[in-house]
Specification:
Elements (H helix, E strand, L loop, with lengths): L1 H12 L2 H25 L6 H8 L5 H12 L2 H6 L2 H5 L5 H35 L9 H32 L2 H25 L30 H25 L5
Length: 254
């Protein structure tokens, strides 16, 4: 299994799109720092403020990781390389899990790259002024934004892998997940505004753990951290089961 995961990492990092994604993350954080400096220079007096502000753009990573996850298996079918994977002395379950774990590692790398680049440019442009215990809320807020984004990317990429397995077409898999993500988050907001409590069962109502911070109100009544964990676990099991069943039964001539 370890060798399979390493092989997936090598393939992912040999792609130009992966390198372009990391470069894009760095450039994005440079632009964010420049804009904040330009518009709020006098109000942004230390790097924690800049880092926290940059974290508001983390949602972009959800779409980036969807592109990678939606193509990780379907591309193998499109190029015909799936045949070479299946003749190896490993089970289809191991192959699928290796691809899943490979994507989650890339997800983690993207988050780390975003954090480090945002901190670097924030230090350069805003320095270390006025750092004290009053900044603790900024640290907690920023950490929770990264936790939320990791959960968001985990669930969305798992769905994208499932669609990639079912449709065997990158464009359809990625496009479908993009549509579901945008529509799903919009629906959550509409249900919240309409005070329809069954909205708590929608996937995207449960990926935001910041709502459980002290003083914050949950999106829907009756929601708790344990409830959200349970809902996410349920969705995760369904997505992974769909991927495993379809991939195991997929008819590929080798």
């Amino acid at each position: 299994m370890i060798s399979l995961i390493k092989n997936e990492q090598i393939k992912l990092f040999n792609r130009r799109t992966t390198k372009a994604a990391f470069l894009g993350i760095v450039i994005l954080n440079l632009l964010i720092a420049l804009v904040i400096k330009r518009l709020f220079g006098s109000e942004t007096d230390n790097f924690l403020v800049g880092t926290a502000s940059a974290a508001s753009f983390l949602m972009i990573l959800s779409f980036v990781i969807t592109g990678f996850a939606g193509a990780i298996l379907s591309t193998e079918y499109e190029l015909g390389t799936i045949k070479f994977l299946l003749i190896r002395p490993t089970s289809r379950v191991e192959l699928l899990l290796a691809k899943f774990l490979g994507i989650q590692l890339v997800n983690l790398y993207f988050l780390i790259a975003f954090l480090l680049s945002s901190m670097l440019f924030s230090v350069i442009f805003f320095g270390f002024h006025h750092l004290d215990q009053n900044n603790m809320h900024l640290i907690i807020q920023t950490v929770m934004k990264y936790v939320d984004e990791f959960m968001d990317c985990l669930m969305i990429s798992t769905l994208a892998i499932a669609f990639s397995t079912v449709f065997k077409n990158s464009a359809i898999a990625v496009g479908s997940v993009f549509a579901i993500t945008i529509i799903g988050k919009t629906v959550v907001e509409l249900l919240r505004e309409s005070q329809l409590n069954w909205g708590k069962y929608v996937l995207f109502s449960n990926t935001n753990f910041s709502q459980y911070l002290s003083g914050e109100h949950a999106v829907f009544n009756g929601m708790t951290p344990l409830f959200s964990v349970g809902m996410l676990a349920g969705y995760f099991i369904v997505f992974m089961a769909l991927s495993l069943v379809v991939f195991a039964k997929s008819d590929v001539t080798v």
